[in-house]
Structures are given as structure tokens and as C-alpha cells.
Amino acid sequence: GPTKDFYEGAAETFDGGETFQDKFQQDRYAKQRETNLHYPFASSGEWELAAFLNGSGLSLAKTEQFLKLPLVGRMNLSFKTAKELRSRIESLPKGPLWKSTTWKTPYPTKKPLTLYYRDPIECLQSLMSNPLLKGSIDFTPFKLWKTAERVVRVYNEWLSGDAAWKIQDQLPEGATVLGAVVSSDKTQLSTMTGNRQAHPLLITSANIRMNCRMKASFHAFLLLALVPIPKFIERDVEIRGVLESRTFHAVLDFVLGPLKKVAEIGLMMSDPLGWRRFCFTPLVAYILDTPESAMVAGVAGKTSSVTTASYKNFGDAYRHPPRTRDYTVQQLHQLERHTDPW
């Protein structure tokens, strides 16, 4: 049958970590939950109603209107207004906190930009300690073989690939590689009513098994940031596009800063069982569509973002060289010889 060869000396565990339940018990209302598990709500039914209203998308005004219905009034709920309901929901134990900052650009925009974001390390720690992922997250690179003869290699998870093995080679003995995966997709929210757009940036871990990571019920993808969408005061369409792309790159560099730092020096983090691990967080994958991949790679729209092929080469019978970090840096250096791109 299938045989696994694990990387020896990787993913060592240490005492002193915290599980999700440990953090839950440190909440200021933990004492009240000893007698009422659903506190700050009176019962499981009231908890379910509050959860439904919170996820329904109703505005505060509509929620208030619902709570004022005579039928609802006869239910004797412990909260009477939408504001009180919101206050109770916000008193529950929180996940990674949201932050905001005014984003300044070197060129004027029609409206001020605000970046809403969370710490990527806090998001990964939240995923690591999620009890739903217990038994569905791995920490040691492995090679999976179809049979004990080790002739046919099987690739089914990121940790089963050569990349995870090579990264582990560069880490201290006993360290844990916690691969980060980000995803972004610029989305049109409305066209006829204000031309509203959103640019969400999501994060997950490559260590989570694929069959669980892609299930919505596991909430394995966390919203990391809402990338601001600038409207520059510039008539030239091409220059405006370059400015928008540079803003996107600058925001990514800022938001993913903690991730890059921990990928360099490591950090003690807790797993779902409460063990501490010395984790390194390299960015191992970026999920995005073709236009956005071109923007991230810094290439024109008709050029491959993963190889050096242009649209004229797309029908070639051979694979073109990969577009690596070193290749991109070399192209930038060549550009600097003729003009100042900065």
C-alpha cells in the first residue's frame, strides 16, 4: 500500500502552548458561561436567532424593525433593540483584530484612501488553533509513494511536494514550516448604483489538508485586508494603470510585512492540541486570476506571468523558462539603465 517518508528532525513540539479552548476560558465572561453556555444570550434558541440575524445581511434599521414585531415581542428575548444585539455579539471572544490606516500615495487621488487590514501572523495563529482543523493540518514535509517499493511518487498536498522539503532544508533543526497562501480578486459590487468595487485579500495555510481547506464550513480562508482602490487624477490611462499597480504592490508589501519577518526569523506558535512549534511562514502560493497575476508579476497583459513567454509564443510545443524572482530583478536593473522607474 501507500508509504510515507517523513522529514526527520522537523516540526518539534514544546510545552506551554494554548488551545482555542484555553483562550476561550480566559475571556472576561468565562465565569458566566459555567452556568449558561450561551452567555451573553439566554438560551440556545436565542443564540441561534442572534447568529441568524448577524449573518442575514439585514441593516440595523431592518433588524430593529424585525425585533419590534409583536410576534417577536412575545418571545421575551433578553435583547430588545438591534443596538443591544450588536453590543452582545461584540462582547464575544474575538478573532484577529482589524486595523485601519490612511494610505498616502505620491500622486493625488480623487478621494482619500483607507486600508483595512489584519496581522497575517495572527490570522495564521487563529487557523492553527482552530479546533475544527484538529486532525486536518500537518506540520512535517513528507514523500508519499504509491507502494512500499517507492517507485511511483504521489503528490496530494503541498507538504508532499519538493518545495516544502527544500524549504525545510534551510530551517533550523526542529523548526516547523507553515506555508502561507494568499488570494485576491478585484470584485465589482455594483454598476448602476455608484460603481462600487472591492479588492479583498485572503489568507490560509498550505499545511491544512486540501479537502478541508476548500470547504466553506471550515472557514479556512480568512479575510486579511481590503486593498484600497485608488482613482488617480491623471488623464493618461497607461500612467493611471501603472500608479494603481504600484499602489497594490505597496499595500501588499505593507500588509505581508509581518509574514516576511517571521519567515526570516521564526516565531513560537500554538497548534490545535496546544503544543508550541517554532514556525517559519514563507509565502508559498498566490491564488488569483490572469489579469491580476500579470499585475503581481509586473508584466504586460499579453505576457505569461509564470514563464518568459509572450502571447506570440503561447502555441509553442516546448515550455519557456520560468519567470523567477531573479529574472524579474534583472529586468528591473536593465530598465533602470535607460530610465528612472521610481
Automatic annotation (TrEMBL):
Pfam family name, one: Plavaka
InterPro entries given in the database record: Plavaka (IPR041078)
Organism superkingdom: Eukaryota
Name of the protein described by the UniProt record: Uncharacterized protein
Organism annotation: Mycena metata
